[in-house]
Each structure stands twice: as C-alpha cells, then as structure tokens.
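Anyone up for a design puzzle?
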C-alpha cells in the first residue's frame, strides 16, 4: 500500500457519502425501503426537503431551486426549527444522517444565495457579509462531520432576528430574487477533488472563489482541512474571500469593480500571503487568468484551480480556445457538466415524480471522469511540455483514480 493510500483509506472508509447514490446535479437518493415508514412519521417536516422518485427519495425538490427571496428566507427559518427535531428524534441513525445531511445542504444553498446578494451591495456587505461567511463555515464544518460519521450534534444556530434584518434590508433595496443555485453545490465532487489536491491546499493562507457558482468551495475545503488537521493534531487557519467577476455571465451585478474588490481584500491580508483562486468550472480559463492578474497586483503568490474542465473541447475541438496546462496550477480530470444537461436535470428534480431514465438501470453517474474516454496519462505525457506541470497533473490524476476506484467498491 502506498503512502497516499495509507493516508486516504481510513478517511474513505469513514465517508458515508460514498454509500449514497448521487445524481448529475449533486442530488442524493435513498431507497424508499427502510426509509419510507419513518418518512411518513415526519412527513410534515420532510416534505419540505424531499421529492419522491420511485423507488427512491431525492433530497432536493422545487423549493431547493427557488429564485424567490421570500421562499429562501422562509426555508432558512424552517430548517432552524426542523433540524433540531430530527437530531433529537428516534429515527434510525442511518436515516437520520441522510436527513440531516440533506437539511444541511439546503441551508448551505440558502446561505450561499444570500451571500450572493449581500456581496453585491455595499450597505448589505458592510452589515452582513462577515456574519454570513462565518455561519457558512459553521455549516460546512457540520456537514464534514456528518460525512465522516461523527456523532450528530446540535445543528448550527442562526438568529431569526438577524435573517429578518437581512431580509428587511434587501426589501428596501427592492431585491426580490436570488440565484437559483450555485453550480458547485455537489458535495461529492467537492469531497473527491479536495482529496485529490489536498497535498497542495494546505500550503495556502487564503482561498478566493468567484460568486456564485463556486460559493461553497472555499468553506468546504477549509472545513476538510480543519477536520484532517484536527485528527493529526496540527491546527492551522486558512481564510476565505469572494470576488464577483465573470467574462461570460452578464447577468451578475456588483456595485464594486473587480479592482475595488481585490483592493478591499488586500487590506485584510499581507502581501506575502499565499492565495489560491478556485473556480467551479472552466473552459478557456479566461475568468481565472483575469482575476489572477488583478490579485497578483496585491499578492506575491497567487495560484489557480478549477474543479471541472471542458476537456471534450480541449481534446476534440481544435478551434476552441481551451485552457492551457501552464495557465492553471491545479487541474483535475473531471469533465465540465454542461449547463444544458445540468438544467435539464434540475428541471427533472423539480417537476418529475419519476426516476430519470439515466438512472433506470440503477447506475448513478457520480463523477464524469475524462479517463472514461481517453488514456489520460498518455494524453498528458504527449501534450504537456513542462515536466513540473506534467508531474503535478499526473499526481492529481493518480490520486483521483485511486479515490474513484475505492468509491466504486462502496457502491
């Protein structure tokens, strides 16, 4: 057994989510058998968070993807009330874990939606940004402990009065909608990619991600670092921040320019601090390189990473200006989930009470890996000229391959 396998195996064996069935959008399914009886006992609570896709219950539904600010605030309040009831219930432990995991995912989605609005307005940012960031990290700390089968503790508390204050302030600004979802709200993808690049993540002082697609990545990665370092009795603090910038999404709004955002971040951290910029996905890497350019004016050491890549275009489309190996420091072999398919999957979750045809044969596509289509090792060896970059890419790939192979054994 290699040293990396010795490090990973105990964690992989503890991770209960590898036993869950995950769909394309990051939604999780549980067999109705063994769950349905207890579901009916708490139906008044659980109907808010689950949808029935015979023969499974799915832990997302219409409300998870709501664009309405009022519904998002109401959902936060419901979770604050409902989660303690489930934690303190007599529900079978394995079912209770799945329910609390699901409620925590709902809360993570809601809070990231709120941060996505708060960040854009100076008055909201000054009043609520820090407290929402702190709470988001508490939630990712909590879900990481659920993932590793720790004892279920009290659900992280959030003040009713505070959420009402935020809501009232937003209404004064005529804000009535939130974004439907964050693209990287897929706990499985975040968990596996963290494991694949964990040897590198711990070297950084600050994680920065673009809102809103990558909102959950920094706190989740930091919670993973905290959990692992706690086991190793090696405490270390990593901070996180956001920027609002995209070369492709013209729907976002922010009162501050990218330069102003980065300048504000630089007032909180020293120039010598090591920064890593992590996005949810990339095709051309233009967004990553543009933000890195601005960050490099304020920080000495800036690295980049994305979790998903448009590998198909890079390999099969010579005219597409795909990302270059030298432009991104930490590259995973995970394929970009195209918006057309992702949105179709989300529509299915929201509107259908039948199991999607892609799952009829019982195969849940947990991760779309490029090595299913090509010889990844051969491709990297043939197309990466820089030996240092090549070694890093192949190291990350080998870690990925080991994790996914182990994961398949669990399912």
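Challenge accepted. My sequence:
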């Amino acid at each position: 057994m290699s040293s990396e396998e010795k490090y990973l195996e105990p964690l992989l064996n503890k991770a209960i989510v590898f036993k869950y069935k995950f769909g394309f959008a990051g939604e999780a399914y549980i067999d109705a058998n063994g769950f349905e009886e207890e579901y009916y006992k708490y139906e008044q609570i659980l109907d808010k968070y689950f949808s029935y896709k015979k023969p499974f219950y799915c832990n997302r539904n219409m409300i998870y993807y709501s664009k309405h600010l009022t519904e998002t605030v109401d959902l936060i309040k419901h979770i604050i009330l409902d989660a303690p009831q489930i934690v303190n219930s007599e529900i079978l432990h394995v079912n209770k874990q799945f329910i609390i995991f699901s409620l925590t995912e709902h809360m993570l989605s809601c809070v990231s939606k709120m941060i996505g609005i708060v960040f854009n307005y100076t008055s909201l940012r000054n009043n609520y940004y820090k407290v929402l960031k702190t709470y988001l990290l508490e939630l990712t700390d909590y879900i990481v402990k659920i993932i590793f089968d720790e004892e279920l503790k009290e659900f992280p508390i959030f003040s009713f009065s505070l959420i009402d204050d935020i809501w009232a302030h937003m209404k004064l600004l005529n804000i009535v909608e939130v974004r439907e979802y964050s693209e990287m709200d897929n706990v499985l993808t975040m968990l596996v990619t963290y494991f694949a690049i964990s040897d590198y993540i711990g070297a950084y002082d600050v994680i920065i991600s673009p809102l809103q697609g990558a909102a959950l990545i920094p706190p989740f990665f930091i919670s993973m670092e905290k959990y692992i370092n706690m086991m190793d009795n090696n405490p270390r603090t990593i901070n996180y921040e956001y920027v609002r910038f995209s070369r492709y999404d013209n729907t976002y709004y922010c009162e501050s320019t990218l330069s102003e955002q980065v300048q504000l971040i630089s007032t909180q951290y020293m120039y010598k601090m090591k920064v890593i910029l992590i996005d949810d996905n990339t095709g051309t890497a233009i967004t990553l390189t543009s933000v890195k350019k601005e960050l490099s004016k304020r920080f000495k050491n800036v690295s980049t990473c994305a979790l998903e890549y448009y590998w198909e275009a890079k390999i099969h489309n010579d005219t597409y200006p795909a990302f270059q190996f030298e432009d991104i420091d930490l590259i995973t072999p995970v394929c970009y989930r195209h918006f057309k398919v992702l949105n179709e999957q989300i529509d299915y979750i929201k509107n259908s009470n039948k199991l999607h045809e892609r799952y009829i044969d019982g195969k849940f596509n947990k991760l779309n890996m490029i090595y299913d289509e090509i010889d990844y090792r051969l491709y990297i060896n043939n197309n990466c000229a820089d030996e240092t970059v090549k070694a890093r890419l192949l190291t990350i790939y080998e870690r990925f391959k080991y994790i996914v192979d182990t994961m398949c054994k669990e399912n």
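A detail worth pointing out: The longest helix spans residues 93-118.
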